[in-house]
Each structure stands twice: as C-alpha cells, then as structure tokens.
Design brief:
Blueprint (H helix, E strand, L loop, with lengths): L1 H18 L4 H36 L1 E3 L20 E3 L5 E5 L7 E4 L12 E3 L4 E4 L13 E3 L4 E4 L13 E3 L4 E4 L13 E3 L4 E5 L12 E3 L4 E3 L14 E3 L21 E3 L21 E3 L6 E2 L13 E3 L4 E4 L13 E3 L4 E4 L13 E3 L4 E4 L13 E3 L4 E4 L13 E3 L4 E5 L12 E3 L4 E5 L12 E3 L4 E3 L14 E3 L6 E2 L3 H4 L6 E3 L4 E4 L13 E3 L4 E5 L12 E3 L4 E4 L15 E3 L4 E5 L12 E3 L4 E4 L14 E3 L4 E4 L13 E3 L4 E5 L12 E3 L4 E5 L5 H6 L9 E3 L23 H31 L5 H5 L3 E4 L7 H7 L8 E4 L3 E7 L5 E7 L5 H15 L9 E7 L2 E7 L4 E2 H9 L9 H21 L14 E3 L5 E3 L5 H6 L3 H6 L10 H6 L4 H17 L14 H9 L11 H5 L3 H17 L10 H14 L41 H4 L19
Parallel strand pairs: 3-5, 4-6, 5-7, 6-8, 7-9, 8-10, 9-11, 10-12, 11-13, 12-14, 13-15, 15-16, 16-17, 17-19, 18-20, 19-21, 20-22, 21-23, 22-24, 23-25, 24-26, 25-27, 26-28, 27-29, 28-30, 29-31, 30-32, 31-33, 33-35, 34-36, 35-37, 36-38, 37-39, 38-40, 39-41, 40-42, 41-43, 42-44, 43-45, 44-46, ...
Antiparallel strand pairs: 1-4, 2-3, 52-56, 53-54, 54-55, 55-57, 56-57, 58-59, 59-60
Enzyme class: transferase
GO biological process, one term: post-embryonic development
Protein name: non-specific serine/threonine protein kinase
Amino acid sequence: MAAAAAAMGCGQLCRRCRCAGLGSRLSVFVAAVAVLFLVTVGGVQGLSGDGAALLDFKRGVVDSSGALADWNASDSNPCSWSGVSCNRDRRVMALNLTNFQNNLAGSISASLGNLTKLEILNLSNNMFKGPIPTTLSKCVGLRIIDFGSNQLSGIIPPELGLLKNLEQLTLASNKLRGPVPEELGQLVSLSLIDLSANDLNGNIPSTLANCPALDYVDLSLNSFSGSIPEEFGRLQLLRVLQVSYGGLSGTISPLLGNCSSLQILLLDSNSLRGVIPATFGNLTLLRSLSLRSNKLLSGIPRELGKCSELVSLDLSNNEFIGPIPKELGNLKKLRLLLLSDNLMWGSVPSSLVNCTSLVEFDFSHNNLTGPLPDSLADMPSIQNIRLANNLLVGPIPRKLGQLKNLTSLDLSANKLNNTIPVGLCSSGELRALTLSQNLLTGEIPEDLAICSSLESLRLSSNRLSGFIPIGFGQLKNFQSLDLSSNNISGIIPIELGTSTSLLEVDVSHNKLQGSIPAGFGQFPPLLMLDLSVNKLTGAIPPGIVNSSTIIRLDLSRNSFSGPVLAPPVTVTTVPMESLNLHHNQLSGNIPVELGQFQDLTELQLGDNNLDGPIPIQLGKLLFLRSKLSLRRNNLTGSIPAQLGNLMLLEALDLSENKLSGFIPSSFNNMLSLNRVNVSYNNLTGVLPARWMTILETFPSSFIGNPDLCLSADVDCVDPDVTRANDRGSSLSSAAVASIVVTCVLAAVVFGVLVVIARGYYRREKIKSDKNLEDKNEFKVFTSDTFSLSDVMKSTQNLDDSFAISSTRNSTVYKAELPSGKVLAVKKLTFKRDDLAEKVLSTETETVGKIKHHNLVQLVGFCRWQGLRLLMYDHLPIGTLSDVLDKHRDEAPEFFFDWKARFRVSIGMARGLAYLHHDCSPKIIHRDIRSTNVLLDANFEPQISDFGLSKLIDQTRTAASATSKVAGTYGYIAPEFAYTMNVTEKIDVYSYGVILLELLTGRRASDPTFPKDVNIVSWMRSFISSSPNPEPILAADVYESCDARSKNQMLLVLKVASYCTNHQDTNRPTMRDVVQMLEQFDRSSSSVSGVGSSRVGSFMQSGVLAGFSDSDTETLFVDMDQNTTDEDYATADDRSMGSLHSRSGSMF
C-alpha cells in the first residue's frame, strides 16, 4: 500500500515538473527514486515477519565462528539461511542449529515465539544460557523442541503445556531447576520427554500419565523426591522409562506392571525401598531392567522368569536375600545377569544352563554356598563369570575348560579346594583368571603358561606347590602375575626376567631359591616386583634397584648378599617409590646414588651388614614419608644433619648400629615424625625437644646410648650405674622404670588436684563480671598502628549497618580505618567466666603468631568492658560460599572457572597442612566449611576461624557439650558425630566436602538433594555404578576446560573421594593432599606426564584409567605400601576402587 502511494505521488510530481517546463531529464530522475524506494520497502516488508524474528534471535546469539553469517537483512529470503527450512508458503517451519559444534552461545530470544508456523526447533549441543522463553507457547504448531546439552537455567515454563501438537520435548543436560510442571500433562500428542541431567526436584507429576502417546521418558540425573507415580501404569504405549540417579525414594508401584509395552526400565542408583513387584512378570516385552544400587530387599520374584525378552538384568548392590530363583533360567535371550553385592544365599542355580545367550553373570559378594555346578560348562555364550567373595566349596569343575568363549573367571575369596583343573584356557580366549584366597593345592597347570591370550593370573593365598612354569615369561600379552602366599619352590625362571609385557610380578611369601635372573629390571615396562619372604640368594643383579621403570621393589627377608647397587652403577631417571631390602645379608656402604632416587617414599635397608657412614645425600629424598629404616647394620659416624630435611618422614629407625655424636638439632624440624628408634648406638648429647613425647610412648627406642641425655639441665651419666655391656646405657631399664614411675606419680597428683579444683569451683562462684571487665587489653599482632577508638569510630560503635555477617557465636563488621586499612571485626558472644577468658587469651596469643599465606591473619584482639573483639584483614571478594552462589546464580561478573577453583583447592590444602603439621601444638580447625574460607582479589583462599575451637567448647555448659557437635551439617566427618573424637582427619573430611562443592557446583547439603542425602553420599551413589563420573562435575566449568584441565578435575575428584572416606584412618593427611595437588599441577603441563609423575606416590596403579585427552592411560600407585586400594574402597566406597569394572569405569 505504502509503495503504491509513493509511486502515485511520484507520478504527480513528474506531471507538475513538466508543467513547469523542467524537461524530461527530471522525469527520469524521479522515476529512478521511486523504483529504489519500492525495492527498499519491499525488502523490509519481506523481513517484517519470520525473517525479522530470526534476526532478532540472532542479536542475542554469541556466534564466535560465524555460523550464522548468512543471516542478514540484505537477503530477503530467510529460507536460504543456515539451519532454516520453510514450507510451501515460504514460512519458517524448522530451525535446526544443532550441527554447529557448540559454537553458539548467548540466550534464546523471546522473538522465536513470532515464528507461528514453526514445527521443529532444535538448538541442541550448543552453549545457550538463560531461561526458556515462555513465548514459545505461541508456536502452536510445534512438534519437536530439542534444547538438549546447553546451559539453560531457570524453570521449565508451564506455558509449554499449551503446545497441543508437541510430540518431542528434549531439555536434557542443562541447569534447569524446580519441579516438572504439571501442565505438561496437557500435551496429549507427546511421545518423547527427556529432562535428564538437570537440577529438577519435587515429585514427578502424575499428570504425565495424561499423555496417552508417551513412548519415551527419561528423567535421570535429577533430584526428585518420592517414587514413580502409580498413574504411569496407564501408559500403555510407554517403551522406555529411565530415572537413574533421580533421587527417588519410597516403593515401586505394582501398577507399573500394567505398562505392557515397556521395553527398557532403568531405576538404578536411587533410594527405592521395599520389594520388586511380582507384576513385573507381566512385562513380557521388557528387554532391560536395572534396579542397581537401591535399598530393595526380600527375595527376587520368580515372576521375572516370565519376562522372556529380557536381555539385561541388573539387581546388584541391594539387600536381596534368599536363593537365586531357578526361574531365571527361562530367560533364553538374557545376556547380562548382575546380582552382586546382595545378601543372597543358596547355591548357584543349575538352571542357568538354559540361558543360552548369557554372556556374563556376576554373583560376587553374596553368601552363596555349595559347589560350583558342572552345568556351568554347558553355557555356550558365556564369557565372564564372577563369583568372588562367597562361601563356595568343593573343586573347580574341570568342564569349565570347555567354554569356548570364556575370557574372564573370578572365583576368588571362597573355600574352593583341590587342584586347579587343566584346560581352563582350552578356548584360547581366557584373559583373566583370578582364584586367590581359596584352599587350592597342587601345582600350577602347565597349560596356563602357554595360554597366549592370558593377561592376568592371580593365584595368591592358596596352598599351591611346585615350580613357576617357565612359559609365563614368553606370553606376549601377559601383564600381571600374582602367586604370593603359597608354597611354591624352585627357582625364578629366567624367562620372567626377559618378558617385554609384564607389569607386575608378585611371588612373595613362597619357598623360592636361587638367584634373581639377570634380565629383571632391564626389560620395560615392569612396574612392580615383589620377591620378599623367600630363600633367594646371590647378588642383586645390576639394573633392578636402579631400574628405569620399577616403582615398587620388595626383596626383603631373603639372603641376598653383596652391595645394594651392583656395579657398574648408572643412575639416570629412577621412578622408584618404595625400596625394601631389609633382612638380607647385603654389605658395603649405603650408595650415595640413592640420593638421586627423588621419588622414594619408603626406604628400608635394615637388618643387613652395611657399614660406613650414613650418606648425607639421603637428605635429598624429600618425599620420604612412610619409613626410613637403617637398623641393625654396622653403620658408623654421626647422624647427618641433612636428614632433618625429610619433613614428611613419619618413621625413622637407626637402632643397633655404631653411630656416635649428637642428634642434629635439625631433627626438631621433622614435624611429621611420630616413630623414632635410635637405641643401642653411641649417641651423646640431648634428645631433640620434639622427641620427648616419643620417649613417653616408646621409651625403649632410646636405650643403649650411655651418654644420651633427656635434657641439657640433667646429667644423665651416673657413675654409680653399672653398664651391663657395650649395649648398656644410662637410659637403662631402671632409668626407664624411674621415668614411668615419675609419670605415674605425677598423674596421681594431677588427678588429686583436679578433684580439689572441681570441689572448689562447686563451692565458690565465679568472679563477678565487673572483675572480668577490669582485665581490659588491646593487642595488635602485626606492624599496623591503630586503636580501639579507630575501630569504634569507623563502625559507629559497631552499628548493625556495618555488619557483614552473623552467626550464633559472633557478628562480623567491616571497619575502614583512617589509614585506609580495612578490617573485618568479629564481635564474640559467649558466656564469660574466668576459664573462658583464660582460654580466649591463650588462644588469641597463639593464633596471633601464626602467619601463613592461606590463613587469615589475626591482626588484633580487644578485651574491653563487655566487648571481646577479634580483628582480621578484610578480603574483598568475600567467602567461598558467596562466590559459589554468585556463579550458580549466573551473576554476569562471576564465572568461577577451574583455574580459580584449583587455586582455592591447593591453597586451602596448604593452609590446613600448616595448621596440622607445622604448628606446635597442632591446630585442628573442626569447622571447615565454605563460609570459613575467604578469597582475595586473585581468588587466593585464606582460612578463617582457626584456633578458636577451645573457646567455643569451653563456653558450652556440660549439657550442651554432650549434645552439640562442633562443625556444620554436611561438612561433619561421620565418626565425629558419634564418637566426638577430635583428630585432624575431621578437617580432612570437611576439606573433601569443599572439593566436591568446587567440582560439582552443588552445596554440601544442597536443597536439590533428597532427604538424608548430602554431597558425599550423592557423589558415592553416582560413582558407585556409573562408567563415567563426568556428569557430576559442574557442566559449565568442565566444558570450559581444555583437555589438560579436564584431566585435572577428574584427578581432584579422586582426591575428594579419599578425603571423604568413611573410615578416618583411610583418609590422607593434609600434607599428602598438598603433595598430590601440587603434582597434579605440575604433571598437567603434559598430556602423558601424569603416568610417570609423583601422583604415583599416593594412589594404586590403575585407580584412574581411561582418560587423558582422549584415551591416555594414567597410572597411580598406592598412598602407602600398607594401605591398599581396598582400604580406600570401604563398604560405601568399594566400587570407586575397582580396577577392572565390567564397563571400564574410570573409578
């Protein structure tokens, strides 16, 4: 219309121009202007509808790769734009931007609601943020919405329930919160709904049962409450129902058995209780059923034997009892049967032979009894049999060798007897055979040594005899051999030493004789060699102790002779972490080259014939931690002061040598040392002050040194004391006895004084508040100069308007002093008495002296009138809790990336390690939580509120002290809640919780968690059965990482699992944690560096595998030789330590 009017106007103007005699040239000009106007207006009109809506959408898109470059106003036809499809009327009917490789970000514009003919909207696999626009409800023709794998937040708009034609709704892998709208039940055409991997909560709406066309439902990886609505039983077309890791509780409704079309039902890793409904036997089309990792009990219903289409059945990790139903043998198509980690009894059903398609069954960790049925050998398709940790008896059926496809057989930890049958590898497919911890006798079958497919053989802790077959060293795929704790004799085959595939060899605790074959250690990639407790002799061959590959070497309790390092001695890069040569007949000096074994955490050379001095080079072994033992040798000279550099060392044994001189004063710096034995030497001088507590616990550790004194003030050389012999001492048995008697008497006197004091305090009231207030004091522990008046003026006498936080015990104010310095002033509120005031004075005096980069500096303390003030440096960013909340709420100025989170992790660890190991006395925080961690402008963490636990405890009444638990819910270590036993391991647990907060983006007691679930139990529930832990990591943080940082996140997740171990004795120390994190930081600089790094000092080989960029294997070694991976994998953590899970799980 406008164009026509313009044309008419131009025509009239031309006529007027002619009348005026302007000529024909002006007419041509005016006509050209009219044409240009028509073209322009026509172009704008083409974009006023769908094109304009798409351009408006593009304005909200961050398109770093230029994927939408052809979307522009100059092209009037949006139907040719990338990702756009139109109908015959040239109206946009489909927008598909899923193939742009996560290059699109920004928000989803409400203008998409103007595409009223839109039928398909696919924005999946990008990085869109923000809410889902409610205006989409205007696109009434929409059939498919796919916003999966983005970073959308907010709630699911109830308005989507207006899209009556919607058939598929996919919102998976986002950050959506809140409940699932009941209005979605109005989508009568809906056949697919996928809301998995979000933060949805509340009950699953029963109204979804009003969608009669529903075919596929996936609500996994959310935090729902309640159970599956029984109304779902009306969904006759439902084929797939997945709510794994959904937070479900309650029972499973029998009405689900009415879903006659159901093919896949996955409800694993929830908290479902009760029984499996017998009505599940009606699901005759069911192909996959997983109820793993719930709390289901009673027996497995025999009706499941009617589900004739079942291919996979996983009921592991529940509380099922009773026998395995023989009716399961009716499942002809069953390929996978997993019933492990239950309480089932009875025998292995012979009816399994009827499951002709069965590839794997796992009945391990139950209470199954009886013999193994011979019928197992008649299962033609079986590949993996796992029956470990049961009560099975009798022989191993010889017919198992007839299984043509058998690749893995695990019968460990039973009571099987007789011999290992010949022919178990007849198929030529056997890769792993584990028969450890049984009562097997006889010899190792020779045919196992020619089994070319064999990769792992574990026969430890049996009663096997005979020789080691020579063929094991010739198997090209053979990696692991464990024959330990048997009665095997003979020599070690030469062929084992020349194997180019072996990674682990453990033949310890046998009766082997002869010498070590020369090839050992020279043929990579051998990582672990344990020949201990045998009758081996001869010299240690060159290349073993200084091997370039061996990480753990144990040759102890044999009769080896000669030097520790056989010539020629060449030491380049030695990854050795544990070297144990004790109890042999080695001679010569301790090689100075051992100082180059930089990765050693344990060195045991005791009980040999070594002589000469202790090399000062041993002081370079800075990672020595568990033990340094040089006892029972003929070592002479003085103890090198350089050994004082071994700050991590926990146990030192130099006893029964010929050492002389003073104990170096540098030993006072060895803060981790808790076991020392220097008895029976010729040491003189005074014991280090820090060793006095060791003397009280282990007084015999210092006897046999005639001139060794307890202190400089005591002359311990008594001329009247007769020395028994050259191993006698003034710290003789009599002296030790006198020390003990003195201690006992002191304890008795102390007890009497305590009784008298208590009586006194019962009779006398505590002094009045006025007397308390007379003890005014104002201390500044730094070089700052300010007064109480400055503090009060800057806060207007602690006015509430200056308060920045408040708890039950304190209020914190922000004080900007005239000098420009900003303080955080904490006003304490507690019941004051003499004892509390004394504790306060002592604690603040101690804390005021502590200075560490990752601990908040106590600047000053004030006791004035009724006030008790603690003054700290104020940190601008606030608490870690604040930053996590801001990131989660998507504050635009805050993106808390992994680099900053890792800085917080390692900084906190350093601060806690300083409190635990470098302060005297050590300080246990007891209330580590994200609100007690402050961040400076560079996100460097500083821990606050340390050293005040005594004050808090002291101000409680006797009643409250027994009823209240120090700490914060969600961060409290489980043992502290019921034992009240305070150790540094409660801080380690709380620190692990904060690591999980940093890694997952969830809070310790996240509101999205079900009742009685915290971040630790949520994490363990997820990882216990998932092949991939990545979904629990904060998606936006993880996706923003490069491959190196992603690896680092996964490594730190494992550290968090160690720190939150249910058993406090299995948690690492904070010093261990610092070393791990620092190594992760160093090792992440190269993709393959992790495998050969210091990480191996702390974790067992194979704990984490299957990642590093794409698929780089990562090797770890045990945190301690005496702490196995099983120690870390307790009942609630067992699967996290699994090295060979069925699916190749990372944990």
